[in-house]
Amino acid sequence: MVEYFQRLGARSLGMFERLGRGAIFFINILSSIPSVLVRPRLLVAQLYSVGVLSFSLIVVAGLFVGMVLALQGFYTLSDFGAEGMLGVMVAASLIRELGPVVAALLFAGRAGSALTAEIGLMKATEQLSGMEMMAVDPVGRIITPRFLAGLVSMPLLATLFSAVGILGGYFIGVGLLGIDEGGYWSQMQAKIDFSQDVINGLIKSVVFGWVVTWIAVFEGYDAIPTSEGVSRATTRTVVHSAFAVLLLDFILTALMFGDI
Amino acid sequence: MIFDGVNMDIQRGKVTAIMGPSGTGKTTLLKLIGGQLRPSAGSIEVDGHNVHKLKHGPLYELRKKMGMLFQSGALLTDITVFDNVAFPLREHTKLPESMIRHLVLMKLQAVGLRGARDLMPSELSGGMARRVALARAIALDPMMIMYDEPFTGQDPISMGVLVKLIKVVNDALGLSSIVVSHDVKETCAIADYVYLVSNGKVVDHGSPLELANSDSKWSQQFMQGMADGPVPFHYAAKDYASDLLGLKE
After folding, report:
1. What ipTM score was computed for the predicted complex, to two decimals?
2. Given B71, B72, B88, which is nearest A134 (Cβ)?
3. Can you give the pTM of this predicted structure?
């Protein structure tokens, strides 16, 4: 019994220690942002690998999620004779929730895991130590450009996800199920509020981009420099990111839409 | 505790070797000198600076005067050999690209790999990777270079090339070199002074000739590669017979 509590205590202390290291790491990232901004080439290269290479995954996933939403929504709404509201339902679901959340989960799986593996392997092959000994700060040179690229890419990818999803809903609702085309767009235009829905969705995606990329770069930088250590760090990135996104989504939704 | 009461003096312009069995903390010692690790007690002075009292900026300034050759080479894997050698020059100088090209080609010529400038690190052999890393380490003309196990896993030709390069580079550029290794023959061939380290202490030191003739049993075992001696062949264990019979001690 005592051993159980000792283990529990040790685990808790370990968790808080990691959180502290992560926070200090984040402060180091923030302090090196100016050095990255004066060398935008570093950021552009990472925007390509973090953002552009996630493009096709986001588009395909967004399209299918929009199509499924339209199918499911149509059969539910038609029970109440409200199938004309399909466009609003698809758009609100995507812009408020599914766009930021699903895009963030996909982003964690594709770009987040790649970031952790890349940085972890750089650590395991002493590339980060090598940079330090060349008097080049690895946080400023390697970590911060990747962090900023994730922060910038995530809202753009979430917006793309929602836009493609709405188009997917249009193909199913209007093209397949015969809903009035004008109604699909006009209802959406009338009911979707820019500040309440679009801006809040964007805020969510910025927060998710921050948390997922922070977790990804920290796990890579903090990984045990062995093949097993990097593998575990990569798994942790995906799992912790998913939990963090879902938890933050609940908190943000309660804050943004709780009083409606 | 990794080191206890270790006192070393690395002389300018000389090749100083730190040798000892695997796992004695030789690499840790280099990381302490480079300020990548912090000692819990004691001090390390490089060029008059106490490394661990330096703040981030001055420490990085001091590191510009230090080169380090890692065991793996530590080349950046996503850029070519040329760009790897150019990396510190591009990071720390504002030299025009034409000048950087000249400097990089000169450094690569010095290690015999000018023709490999367009290769990626994955296309290099282990020995070539270390030679490129050496070219990169001398790119900023440092005052000292630290070599971490430079000969490990090398074929005889690569080893011979590295032995020659370390000595030539040290003498030609007037560097101070610290070579951490357990390859006795190769290291003694180029070292001016040798420290033998074991169990966190300096067990012997002197010129390679002095160590070869040392009375210390430990030095004799290490220098001649004997299987048994002060460092026992058997890892500490309970009595063999009782162990076989499954008896409790």
Report:
1. 0.83
2. B88
3. 0.86
